[in-house]
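user: Here is a favour to ask of a fellow structure person. I have my own habits and do not want them to colour yours. Could you put it straight underneath, so I can go through it closely?

assistant:
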Amino acid sequence: MDVYHGEKSAEFFWNDFVPKFYPKLMTSLEQEDKVKAMTEVIDSEFKVYLDTLHKLLNEKADKKFLTSDSVTIYDICLGGAMTNMFLNPKNPFIQLWQAHYDKNASDLVKKYTDDFKTEFADYLSTRFEADK
């Protein structure tokens, strides 16, 4: 069941969330239009993402991560997206993502994100961060 739960989590991210998010991220809009597009995605799709992540974590509330007390590939998928894309300090839209995360992420999602950051502290402190 843990593999099923992990696969369900990854499927949600790659097949439900990413197709709604990436097209707007990858377009070559003018900056003003990008801000508008990102705001729309964050206000609608990121809210769903945070709510769904909460539900997925709550299904295994006795575990530190998605399927166990250790990081799995599924955590690298979802936790990595949270730290490398949405909440990356060099993300040009960090203020939009961070404000929405701070306001709408449940305590469970915030704990998961913090636990993931702790596990990957060495990487996160030395990772390459592209300029804005």
User: Anything to note?
Assistant: The chain has six helices and no strands. The first helix runs from residue 2 to 26. The helical segments are 2-26, 31-59, 73-86, 94-104, 107-119, 121-126. The radius of gyration is 15 Å.
